[in-house]
Design the sequence.
């Protein structure tokens, strides 16, 4: 059992119906890729990006979920200020970038930190990926594509979806996690 197994994947309220929990693995503006290893119950350095590349946003996972690759469902997380590995962030699910990695589904959710009292986030009014500038979404797709290819994986983009459809990916991941856990 991992220290994150007791954190619910969904944390929706009436005013925020697409709220998910995100465990940050890799902070924005670093070249290092960290990953949580549940067997060690620790974060490990998995990869270092080539010179000139850095993570464009925080990157993490939704606890209590599994994707087709056996890892938790991945999340690209936008915050005003980067977080740190292990930080749990309540976030608004905006959509997903569809990707197949070596023939397996490996979609990446896209989320933004929820507004917090006393702070004004650039994401306050963003509810779906369509609310973002198209360039931000394209740049994130291009980064993820390049990152996976740098690791020697074959990537196929399968499209972008909005929050409502992305929520189905979370539910599917929750069912897979529940099935494996019991």
Sequence:
């Amino acid at each position: 059992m991992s220290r994150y197994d007791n954190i619910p994947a969904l944390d929706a309220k009436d005013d925020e119906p697409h709220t998910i929990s995100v465990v940050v693995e890799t902070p924005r503006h670093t070249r290092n890729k960290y990953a949580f290893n549940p067997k060690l119950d620790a974060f490990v350095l998995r990869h270092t990006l080539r010179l000139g590349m850095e993570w464009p946003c925080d990157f993490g996972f939704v606890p209590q979920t599994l994707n087709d690759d056996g890892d938790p469902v991945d999340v690209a997380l936008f915050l005003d200020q980067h977080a740190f590995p292990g930080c749990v962030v309540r976030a608004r699910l905006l959509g997903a970038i569809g990707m197949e990695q070596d023939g397996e589904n490996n979609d990446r959710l896209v989320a933004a930190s929820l507004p917090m009292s006393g702070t004004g986030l650039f994401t306050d009014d963003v509810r779906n990926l369509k609310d973002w500038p198209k360039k931000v979404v394209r740049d994130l797709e291009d980064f993820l594509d390049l990152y996976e290819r740098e690791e020697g994986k074959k990537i196929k983009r399968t499209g972008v979806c909005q929050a409502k459809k992305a929520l189905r990916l979370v539910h599917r991941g929750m069912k897979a996690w529940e099935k494996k856990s019991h």
